[in-house]
Structures are given as structure tokens and as C-alpha cells.
Amino acid sequence: MLPRPGVPSAVEELTLDPPAAGEIRVRMLASGVCHSDLHVRDGEWQRPGPVVMGHEGAGVVEALGPGVDAATTGLEPGRLVALAWVVPCGACRSCRAGRSWECPDSPSFRHGRDAAGRTRARRADGTDVLAYLSIGTMADAQVVPAAAAIPMPAGTPPAVAALIGCCVATGVGAVTKTAAVPAGASVAVIGLGGVGLSAVMGARLVDAGRIVAVDRVAAKLDLAAELGATDLVLAGPDPVVTADAIRTATDGGPDFAVEAIGRPATVELALEVLPVGGTAVLVGMTPQGERAGFDVYRFVDGGRRIVGSNYGSAVAAVDFPRYAALHLEGRLPVERLIDRRIGLDDVEGAFDRLRRGEGLRSIVTF
Ligand SMILES: NC(=O)c1ccc[n+]([C@@H]2O[C@H](COP(=O)([O-])OP(=O)(O)OC[C@H]3O[C@@H](n4cnc5c(N)ncnc54)[C@H](O)[C@@H]3O)[C@@H](O)[C@H]2O)c1
Ligand SMILES: [Zn+2]
Ligand SMILES: [Zn+2]
Q1: Which of the four CATH numbers 2.30.30.60, 3.20.20.370, 3.90.180.10, 3.30.70.260 does domain 15-165+313-365 have?
Q2: Entry pTM
């Protein structure tokens, strides 16, 4: 539980109300530690607290609130579900246009407060405790909107289902859905955490041509090669050298440059390496308020494009089971992203490792 952004999280015993109408109770099995949790933990994004962190989780359905019909939703008790961090509001301009992943009015952004302002979780002293993105997956159990719970195919490992809930949907979707990279096109992926490595897997899935993996940690490059990267670039202190290496691997620049870190300098690198007609796909999220710059003349004259990709343009109910099926067919080796399994009491340690760019996905198991 995070008392508020910018301070350490701690394990705490909370009480949890039963699910209300349209909600279910989930017993959590696995929760990934994503860099977006770290942005909140470090106070880089303004978010309310106290809050149960975590937005990359999977568990089993334990109880259904009033009005949730197991037969029509597939949410029968015992069923494995992956949790989605955007439940579309259904009414806004984006939802009406069929782009629910960018819904700005999602009830998920109330972080577990219902329309009456009540939360389901409480501290011993009665204080309301929020659930991050209304799923707060770093908890033994959680009450979530039924619409956030996506039934997964039989045999999906819970940790894989958890990662499908954020980094896989985000990275695979950025390449296959947001950018819709065609077969044979060249892709550079800058930053090889859970999100970037998923983008590498996505590029492989669509039969991209050259797939250039870029990171400042050599071990990440090795794994990227095993997941399908054709060229590896170890980013050093000089971005000019890194840019040259990416251009050399892609006949003058990649058709698509995916930024999966969230730093102005690497956003600028993604724009800088684009050839004429190339597209930068921005997936990494900076601290709020940061800006990046580019040479406008060159950008416009070369017909280049910048695309922001939120949640890999995921429609969770359709895409999550599809990614799980690809995993079960051996075409999306999500388990390779898992570095270590930890208890809730090591979440701060996992944040430290993420800060240092060390290791891959830590999975909290319960
Ligand atoms: N757009 C979305 O919907 C969405 C969803 C999830 C996460 N994110 C964001 O994506 C980003 C990546 O998330 P993650 O969990 O994979 O993070 P991560 O920390 O696991 O991975 C970041 C990687 O970037 C590398 N890196 C850092 N600085 C670098 C540099 N200067 N040059 C080269 N490599 C560098 C690190 O070594 C690490 O491998 C975060 O900003 C996160 O908030 C966005
Ligand atoms: Zn995430
Ligand atoms: Zn909406």
C-alpha cells in the first residue's frame, strides 16, 4: 500500500467490503511490477492516496456482486481472469469512435471510488484506501469492476495472464495494433523492459524485417535476440553513436522507431533516427510535464509521423484472450519476461531494481 505518491510503500492489513453491483471479488495470483507503478511511487505522476498499487495482475474469481451474471460474462467463481486497467466509459468521444483504450472518462481513473465516493478497502482506523486504476493488484484480494476482469483460456499461467494485463498488451499492441507494422518493415525498439521486449515480440509476430533492439544494459540485448531481434545496439553515453548504429542496421533508419523508456532524450533519439516517411511510436511515459524537441523542418519535409500509443490500442476483452492463445501456441513467449517471483514485502526492492534498469519483470505471487 502506498500512503501517497513519493513515499515508500508498505505491507498493511486492510478490510475489504463485499462486491457491490457490477463488481466482483478476485483472489490475486500474480502481479507484475511495471515502471508505471514506479512513476507513481516516486511521485512523478500526480495520483491520489492512500492506494493499493499494481495494475498488471491476474487472479481467480471469488465472488460476484449483484447483477453480475456468470453465464453471460464467463466470470464463474474459480475462473482465471486478467485485469484490465481501462474500463471504457462507453459514452465519451473516444469510446463512441471505437477507441476505448484512450477513454479519458474511464471509471478506472476513479481508482476504486464508486459513484457515491466510497472505496471497498479500508484501513483499521476507517480511512478509505483506493485501488490503483480500480484494480490495485498488489493485494491478496481485491474488489474490481466486473468489466475489468477478462476470462482467460484454460491453461494460461497466472503470471503470463498478469503480464498480458499491461506490458504485453502495451508493447505487442503498440507494434501490431497502434502502428500496424506491415510484414518486412524495419522496427527499432528503444528500451527493453517488459514493455520494450513485448514490442520486440510483437515485431516478430508480424514478421517485421530488421528488428533492432536498443538498451544500455547488455543482458537485455541478449534476451531481445532470443525473442527475435536481428540487430543489437548497446546505447552508450553518446546518442549520436547510438543513432548511427540504428541507421546502419536499417538501411538509413527504421520504418518504425518504438520508444519504450519515457525519457525526453530517448524520445528525441526515436525521432532523430527516422528515415523519410518513418514513424515514431511513443510508448514510454515521462514524468508529467516533461517536453522533448525535434527539428520541425526536417520532420515535415520528410513526411515523418509521431504516434502516441496508449495500452497498445487494446480492446481487453478481445485482445487479452488472443495474446494468451498466442502464448499457448508458443508464438508469444511471455514467460521469458519474468525475472523473479517475489512476495509483497519485496515490492520496494523490485522498484529499486527497475530504477537501476536491472533485471526484467518481478512478479508478486500470493
Ligand atoms: N503507453 C502505455 O500505455 C504504457 C503502459 C505501460 C508502461 N508504459 C511506460 O513504458 C515505459 C517502460 O516501462 P517498463 O515497465 O518496460 O520499464 P523498465 O524500467 O522495465 O524498462 C526500461 C528499459 O529502458 C532501459 N533504459 C533506460 N534508460 C535508457 C537509455 N538512456 N538508453 C537506453 N536504454 C535505457 C532500461 O535499461 C530498461 O531496460 C515506462 O515509462 C512506463 O511507464 C506505458
Ligand atoms: Zn504498466
Ligand atoms: Zn470513454
Answers
A1: 3.90.180.10
A2: 0.98
